[in-house]
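Supplementary Methods, section 5.1.

A reviewer requested that the exact input to the structure prediction be made available. We therefore reproduce it here, unchanged from the version used in the analyses.
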Amino acid sequence: MKLVIKDETFTGDIINKIEIEIANELITVKDLIASRVTAEVNRYNQRSSDYFTGLIQPSDTEKTLNGFKFKKKRNIDAEKQVYIALDSFQKNSYFILIDDIQAESLDQEVLVRQDTSVSFLKLTPLVGG
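The structure derived from this sequence is encoded token-by-token as follows.
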């Protein structure tokens, strides 16, 4: 099943969308975050873009209007980015709204349907690897 994840501002403006593949209808918040971050990193590593758009700002990048720009093009470590994203969720650096209900913990299970709405709202810039 495909799931569209949106990055939103607190005013409801959508600043990024990513589509991920979900294997099971029942997924934990931890697996949702990991799937999202891994998909973003894999998409970037397979392209030849100078810009990365994603939840976690990789180290050695500067923030621009088009995303995060590397000083020198390189592949991103998905495992490191996932670790930072999970840690940041626990530190309340961003919120996840699933069908307009805030996700509370990494172990929380979510039933994903065709019309499930998932939004990430960032509070602080996240920097990773």
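The first helix runs from residue 29 to 46. These observations are discussed further in the main text.
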